[in-house]
Batch of 2 targets.
Target 1
Amino acid sequence: MSAIRLDGKATRDEIFSDLGARVEKLRAEGITPGLGTVLVGDDPGSRSYVKGKHADCARIGVESIRKDLPADASTEDLNAAIDDLNADPACTGYIVQLPLPRQLDENAALERIDPIKDADGLHPINLGRLVLGKEATLPCTPRGVVHLLRRYEIPIAGARVTVIGRGVTIGRPIGLLLTRRSENATVTLCHTGTRDLAAEVSRADIVVAAAGVPHLITADMVKPGAAVIDVGVSRTDDGLAGDVAPDVWDVAGHVSPNPGGVGPLTRAFLLVNVVERAEAQLAERTRAGTAG
Ligand SMILES: Nc1nc2c(c(=O)[nH]1)N[C@@H](CN(C=O)c1ccc(C(=O)N[C@@H](CCC(=O)O)C(=O)O)cc1)CN2
């Protein structure tokens, strides 16, 4: 058996064709969405992701604002970049690219972002609103995973989902999305303290692997027919390696490859978030105009 490939690039292209039209509409109303990025240091992965995000902006007509800081940037340097973007009217949404170098406090940086401009959905207010079931900007990778499952009509309601990894960008928030009433999945979150990872994975209808350990998930762990979403990525001497071993394709029903799966959707949903923020601005302006 060979699994059905969940094509992140084709799905991203569908999202972008709709988004381009929404950007045109906003521009016609005098609002140009603008994405800001703060990148600290020379990590090759982070550099390539940020470059890709700005290439996406050019593709759909979103303005780009870059703040690139050296690897030895201080907290004051980072705070100044964040404060600039908070104050810049051309920036309707922005992100601080993670991970940050060790001398910088990621949580403090995320908390300093104006929650209205938080394009990543990682500000404590937005994560808190998600916990409370209120409308919020949603984290990009979890949003991409849910979209990919829906796009390929993989049943989510009632499904047993095993997530591997407890990071702030994927592992923790994805459980919050998948356990909303609108998704209704049952989620188990595994991490380095999990006693029997194979047993947890083998129970799952959907596996979301976000550990960053090359080929951690192997065919013998996976329930036949399960959907396996490979989110973790490692840069090895042989190139990029996902968390999912190649033999999983022989057992699973669906697999999202890595690269070419969730990564392009992470970028797509970043721009969806930026456009949604700009649309909210327009709605607010219209409301204020009508009220006045
Ligand atoms: N502030 C944030 N930092 C990080 C996030 C995030 O959502 N917000 N997620 C990851 C990295 N990431 C986004 O920034 C990201 C990861 C992967 C891709 C992607 O398009 N991958 C391609 C392969 C690209 C390559 O060849 O290097 C793919 O999977 O096909 C985009 C963005 C950590 N940091």
Note: The two ends are 64 Å apart (CA to CA).
Target 2
Amino acid sequence: MSIFIKLKWFFKENWRMYSIGILMLFLTDLSRVIPPYMIGLFTNKVVDHKLTWSYLMIFLAILLLIFLLSYFCRYGWNTHIVKGAALLERTLRKRLYDHYMEMDAPFYQKYRTGDLMSHASNDLSSIQRVASGGILMAFDSTANIILVVISMILFVDWRLTLIAIFPLPFLAIGVSWIMPRLRRAFTAYQEGFSKMSDHAQESFLGMKVIKTLGQSEEDIQAFDQQTDQQVKINAQVARVDSLFDPLATVVMTFSYVLMIILGGQFVLNKTITIGQLVSFTAYLGQLVWPMFALGQLFNVLERGNASYDRVMDLMSEESSIHDDPNGLSEIGVGELNIRVKSFNYPDDPKIILKNIDIKLGEGQTLGLVGPVGSGKTTMLRLLLREFDSYDGEIDFSGHDIRDYKLSSYLSAIGYVSQNNFLFSTNIAKNIAFSNPKIPRAEVEKVAKLAALHDDIMQMPNQYDTEVGENGITLSGGQQQRVAIARALIVNPAILILDDALSAVDARTEKEILNALKGQRQDQTTIISASRISSVINADQILVFKNGKIIERGQHENLVAQDGYYAKTFHEQELASHYEAKLTGGE
Ligand SMILES: Nc1ncnc2c1ncn2[C@@H]1O[C@H](COP(=O)(O)OP(=O)(O)OP(=O)(O)O)[C@@H](O)[C@H]1O
């Protein structure tokens, strides 16, 4: 029942709709207690040989009227309560989705996609059922039981009523024993379901790897184990849930036995008439459904309760990124200053960045190189405001980046990583993702800048060519260039290419870099790369190692320093020289 208290905010917001629905439900239940009373009267007329045609007609007319009223009320409660439940699901889904959108990188590191999906589907459906079936069964069964018992007392006999309902408290004891067990079983079920969807989702995404490494059998086995486990948990749910129905049957049978023994005695003693005993039998029959509905109700409520707690646990997670709604929303061009004394990832004390000090003039290009794992991406992630918890400050265009409104700041940045996500739509829509209304000419312009236009023109439907899920029909280099075009279309104040040219050949790389140089003279560009050729013309090049800047300067200057940069440059030069010889390109 506590789930109703937890959902009080929603029922309060929609009290009008629920009040009408519940009133209609009450009227339906009220209309149900009249026919048994009338059947009793009718039986007495028959037994006393006093039945006339006119009485029969009036009797039938009243019954018809009651059925019509009941039909109208049923329609009324159905539409109001079902509409309310749909509204609750929509409200929670929107809140959850907004929450997912607001959350930071550590949140997505902590929760897996399958888990988040199961919260948004399975859990929300269970909560939605509380506001429809739950409300219906709770009010219907309670109102039914109360009205039937009152009718039994008023129209038959209070002693007989007391004796007939005497076994009911045993049902209540049974329910209080079953409920917590049912809840534990449901929580285990939902958690198991999350793990299962997570596994399925990861397997679908990594299908190529699984198959090429010959792990299909192992994956199937692992999934089978999870489904077997889920079947066991489900059986446990069914075992606990199934305890209620037999208990209700035993209790109701006991009530019937008591009614036959004592009711017969009352008729023989003339305490009640035969008609009243017939009414009583019908009333007792009307108690059967609410009893079973109570069982269903606990199932729905406990499932909803467990799901609500899971969803609220997720919603209580707070983003570590402070977004000031009144923050600056105008972002111009300007200097970029990065001073980070130290940074470690949340939940990991290892210092990843140490004493980073960068000053980049307006419209300049910064190049970042260094061995794998040296901290280049981490620094870019700070610039992208994925983490705010660093010791130091980052200023852009005269303001700390944390003083900008997050959405405004991020929309001024064009970020392209090595692995880009493409949407399963056509190329033009992928490029124009930030503004679907952008004219086709603009889309073509940025595609040309990204050296992609010629490739697109070779495709069957050119800019309308569908790229498949995550751009599966495109080559790695084409995917990267779609992502570059997508970033360029917003004409970002800061463009970040994080190893974003790794899948394109040297000639295309040169073409893109030249185009960017011509196009972005006033704006900041940051290029992180393992290939020195990507950063060779940068105004400032930084070499990272173990989270520190170990060399800095322009290309010639760095080559002269004869350090990591010079060594890597010469090695790469030599490698490309031999490669060109082998392919006959020189
Ligand atoms: N989410 C994370 N939690 C903890 N440590 C992390 C996390 N992401 C990266 N690291 C660690 O931070 C260090 C720097 O990684 P980073 O990705 O910044 O390097 P990089 O220079 O960009 O490397 P690459 O060129 O391979 O992309 C690595 O030791 C890595 O293991």
Note: The domain at 2-315 is CATH 1.20.1560.10 (ABC transporter transmembrane region fold).
